Amino acid sequence: MWSGSSSLSSPPSTHTGRRHCSPPHCREFGLGDAVLKQDSVGCNALHHAIRGGHGDLALELIAAEPALSRAVNKNNESPMFIAAMRNSADIFDKLLSIPYSSHSGCAGDNTLHAAARNGNSGEN
Question: What fold characterizes domain 38-117?
Fold first, then answer.
C-alpha cells in the first residue's frame, strides 16, 4: 500500500500530477519486466529519465535494472551517450561502472565524442 494515497492500487503522484513507480516498488506491482520495455522509437525508462532530467530516478533505475544500460534507441543512442550529451556526470559514471553498458551514439558517434563535444575533459 502506498502511504499517503487514497488508492490502494496506484503509485504516489509526482509533482507533475503523473504517477510513477520507483524501481523497488515496480517489482511489488509485477512491473519488473515492463520497466525493460522499449517504446516505438526504442527508448526505455532509463533513456526517458536521463533525457527528461530526472537524475535521481535514472540512478534508481540503473541500480535496480542494470540491463537498461544495454539498450539503444532507433537513433543508436545509448543511455550513456545521452548522459554524456547532457553532462550528467553522476549518471555517466554509474553507467560506466557497468561492464556491458552500451556506449554508442547517433551518426556513428559514441560517448567519447559526446563528452568532447560538450567540452568535458573528465577532470574536475
Answer: 1.25.40
* CA 35 – CA 37 distance, rounded (Å): 6
The stretches of the chain forming alpha helices (DSSP H) are: 23-28, 45-51, 55-64, 79-85, 89-96, 111-117
User: CA-CA distances (angstroms) from residue 56 to 16, 51, 60, 119, 121?
Assistant: 16, 12, 6, 24, 24
Prediction pTM value: 0.73
pLDDT confidence bin for 118, thresholds 50/70/90: confident
pLDDT reading at 110 higher than 70: yes
Cβ burial of 98 (10 Å; 0-12, 13-18, 19+) is: middle
**SS3 for 13?**
strand
Per-domain residue ranges of the chain: 38-117
Do 41 and 69 form a contact (C-beta atoms < 8 A)?
no
Q: How confident is the model at residue 21 (pLDDT cuts 50, 70, 90)?
A: low
Rounded CA Rg of the chain = 15
